[in-house]
């Protein structure tokens, strides 16, 4: 089972969070992008742009934060954090 946890943060307070589960046979990359798409739909956000620092941080820790730099539209929070909490 693959599980990803997403959290919206503002002023060091978590505004909302959700966990996405995926038990399919897709590749890890497809599971990550699918989970991120589901999270963005639930939070009514556009999909963030993966910058070099996001990719490096995610490869290293299976966790990254998307700040205003990763979004085209103005966001009402400080950052969106995603973290893989369980993998097959």
Structure notes:
This protein has two helices and four strands, in the order E-E-H-H-E-E. It is of the alpha+beta class and 88 residues long. A four-stranded antiparallel beta sheet has the order 2-1-4-3. Strand 1 (2-10) and strand 2 form a beta hairpin. The longest helix is centred in the middle third of the chain and has 16 residues, at 28-43. The radius of gyration is 12 Å and the shape is globular. It starts with a strand and ends with a strand.
- Largest sheet composition: 4 strands, antiparallel
Q: Averaged pLDDT, please?
A: 96
Global Rg: 12 Å
Lateral strand order in the biggest sheet? 2-1-4-3
Q: Shape, please?
A: globular
What is the assembly state of the chains in this entry?
single chain
Helices, by number, come to 2
SSE sequence, one letter per element: EEHHEE
Give the class from helix and strand content and strand pairing: alpha+beta
Report the portion of residues in β strands: 35-45%
């Amino acid at each position: 089972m693959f599980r990803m946890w997403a959290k919206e943060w503002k002023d060091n307070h978590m505004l909302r969070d959700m966990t996405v589960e995926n038990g399919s046979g897709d590749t890890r990359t497809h599971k990550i992008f699918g989970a991120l798409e589901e999270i963005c739909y639930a939070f009514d956000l556009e999909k963030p742009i993966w910058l070099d620092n996001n990719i490096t941080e995610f490869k290293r820790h299976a966790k990254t934060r998307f700040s205003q730099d990763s979004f085209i539209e103005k966001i009402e929070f400080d950052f969106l954090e995603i973290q893989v909490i369980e993998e097959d």
